[in-house]
Write a structure and sequence with these properties.
Keywords: Membrane, Transmembrane, Transmembrane helix. By secondary structure, the protein is mainly alpha-helical. Helices cover 79% and strands 4% of the residues.
Length: 220
């Protein structure tokens, strides 16, 4: 249950930006329960498959470490994100709308897929967590706009957690762990220290940018 909740919460917050884009494309279809159900199911299946593919790649040496580095970059980018522009380009037919969102999600969900791949290796939990978060985001998209507008620091907190998870997995990666083990005797005690340190750095970095510049979401 804890693992499912973790996947759900991280997916929910990391998709706040994406859902604004998707709803702007859906337009009038966003109020249709059936359309929301269909698009949620398709996106969830695609993402679950992508996460499984990432897990397979983890068997290759240094891949997990490389993904950890990418996640750190994503964490810093998320913590300092300031402005999102959402296009209002009208797409009339439903099939075209669905195809556009599915194609767009392959790119926009990369960060979500990488993060979730570090949180769970159970397909059912991954599918359930991602599916529930997407469904709720689509159904309550009007509230999502308000949440993003008034609580931008939520991204900073999630970014700090991503940084913690990324650093922990980078150090625990076998080649890195064996390399560090030869130089540090109390390696197991140092792993949380490195991870917490990275989380604090990202938290300070994100809060600095939040106070310096307000995040502004412009819906055109």
């Amino acid at each position: 249950m804890a693992e499912l909740l973790k996947v759900f919460l991280i997916s929910f917050v990391s998709d706040l930006d994406n859902i604004i884009v998707y709803v702007s494309i859906l337009k009038r279809y966003a109020s249709s329960f059936l359309v929301v159900l269909v698009i949620t199911a398709i996106l969830t299946i695609n993402r679950t498959f992508s996460v499984s593919l990432i897990h397979y790649l983890y068997t290759i040496p240094w891949v997990e470490f490389s993904i950890g580095v990418i996640l750190l970059i994503i964490a810093f980018k998320m913590a300092s994100k300031q402005t999102e522009f959402v296009s209002s380009k009208r797409i009339s037919s439903l099939p075209k709308v669905l195809f556009t969102i599915i194609a767009l999600d392959l790119v926009l969900s990369i960060d979500n897929v990488l993060i979730v791949s570090e949180l769970s290796r159970t397909p059912a939990i991954i599918y359930g967590g991602i599916g529930l978060s997407l469904f709720l985001l689509f159904m309550f998209s009007s509230y999502v706009f308000q949440f993003v507008k008034f609580f931008p620091w939520a991204f900073v907190v999630v970014a700090a957690f991503i940084g913690y998870t990324a650093m922990e997995n980078m150090i625990k990666n076998n080649p890195v762990y064996n390399l560090l083990l030869g130089n540090f005797k109390n390696m197991e005690e140092l792993i949380p220290l490195f991870s917490k340190g990275m989380a604090i750095i990202i938290l300070i970095y994100g809060l600095y940018h939040s106070f310096k510049n307000d995040r502004i979401y412009i819906i055109k």
